[in-house]
Design goal:
mainly alpha; globular; 401 residues; 2 domains
Length: 401
């Protein structure tokens, strides 16, 4: 890991480069003919960005970290740095497409590669210094959305692998994971393990595997219109002609959402309730509620009734996901489950957007919710609790450690 001194130098270097780019951009808006029509907006926006970037220098001269103003500045600069990068990358990508069409792919690749690590100074100097658990959860939720969406700026109008990686959120997810690894380490959390817990029983693991396979297949390919057809009517056709896009979107959801919810937020909740007798119960329930709630943003692109149904399903599924992670101790199991679940659903439906649900959809939701909750209750109770307790001790999140 880089020392704090080097991180500060990196941060200072980014500030200097950003200010130079803003000055150059302002000049171009007045000198370059295709941009002169937008110079009025540039005169307003660019000076504001210049000041916001300049304010980032405050992170280099903190002397009293206990003061409320300094603590507020950590929140402010975390958001400020992220939004300034968002604006400058938008500006840079636009200029690249105007001035250098022949080499645009190469330059956008360089932009994308640097985008993966550009938030490291912000993570070290601002975000990781937020100590309030509620503040940590809120910033994680906000930044996951913003960071994953940043690479969408760095795309071309023609089809390319870079465009697919950026528009599906793959590169943004990598950036979020790299940044949050630093933050979670500074918040004193261990990185999630990929190996299955040594205490997990083979019979329970087999049951989990069967449940995952059945859930993925039923969700994607069951074509029932009523309860009587639930086990008899299937459609295994792939409807989309562009599978690559949906495969990458499913991978992005499996990686980013599980990293956010089952590692970052669940870990914070487990630590918050560490001294409670119902530590696991409270953490799992709240994690499910948060996971369901973040799907409310889908109401922008699909009917509200479909979004409500999706939120309820995500709440119950989130509890099941948490139970699987706590028992298996393997983050890899959750990633594969979530990714395959979404990939198959997207490929079968040919879309990521839900339509207005019918009466049977609500009946089916009631059944699946009960199944998810019963499955989670089974994993979190009885003899399985000792396995979960062992895993929590390994992660230093147990109330008995």
């Amino acid at each position: 890991m880089l020392s704090e001194k080097r991180i500060k130098r990196w941060h200072l270097g980014q500030i200097i480069v950003q200010e130079i780019l803003l000055i150059v951009a302002l000049v171009l808006f007045f000198k370059f003919n295709p941009l002169t029509k937008s110079r009025l907006g540039a005169v307003v926006v660019l000076p504001v960005l210049f000041i916001l970037v300049l304010l980032q220098l405050t992170l280099l001269c903190e002397k009293h970290p206990e003061r409320k103003l300094v603590q507020f500045n950590h929140y402010f600069q975390s958001v400020n740095i992220l939004l300034c990068f968002f604006a400058l990358l938008s500006l840079g990508a636009a200029f690249i497409k105007i001035f250098n069409n022949k080499n645009v792919i190469f330059l956008l690749i360089l932009f994308t590669l640097y985008e993966l690590i550009m938030l490291v100074p912000m993570a070290e100097l601002a975000w990781s210094k937020i100590k309030n658990p509620i503040g940590q959860i809120i910033t994680l939720l906000l930044f996951e959305i913003l960071i994953v969406s940043i690479p969408e700026i760095l795309t071309m109008y023609s089809h390319s692998l870079l465009q697919v990686l950026n528009t599906t959120g793959i590169t943004g997810s990598i950036c979020f994971i790299i940044t949050s690894i630093i933050v979670m380490k500074n918040w004193h959390y261990q990185n999630p393990g990929l190996r299955i817990s040594s205490r997990a029983k083979y019979s329970i693991l087999a049951f989990i595997f069967i449940f995952i396979v059945a859930d993925c297949l039923i969700n994607a390919f069951n074509d029932a219109n009523n309860l009587g057809q639930l086990l008899t009517r299937w459609d295994f056709h792939i409807t989309t002609k562009h599978p690559t896009q949906y495969i990458f979107q499913g991978i992005e959801a499996g990686v980013a959402e599980e990293w956010l919810m089952r590692f970052c937020i669940l870990s914070i909740l487990l630590k918050k309730f560490k001294n409670s007798k119902n530590q696991v119960l409270w953490a799992v329930l709240l994690d499910g509620l948060i996971f369901g709630s973040i799907h409310l943003t889908n109401a922008v692109v699909q009917p509200l009734s479909a979004t409500i149904l999706q939120m309820i399903n995500a709440f119950a599924a989130g509890i099941a996901f948490s139970a699987i992670y706590l028992y298996t101790g393997s983050f890899f199991v959750n990633i594969v489950y979530h990714a395959v679940y979404d990939i198959l659903a997207f490929l079968a439906a040919g879309t990521t957007v839900m339509t207005v649900p019918h009466i049977f959809d609500w009946e089916y939701l009631f059944i699946t919710t009960l199944i998810y909750l019963a499955f989670a209750f089974f994993l979190l109770s009885g003899k399985r609790k000792s396995v979960i307790e062992y895993n929590l001790q390994q992660w230093e999140l147990s109330n008995k450690s």
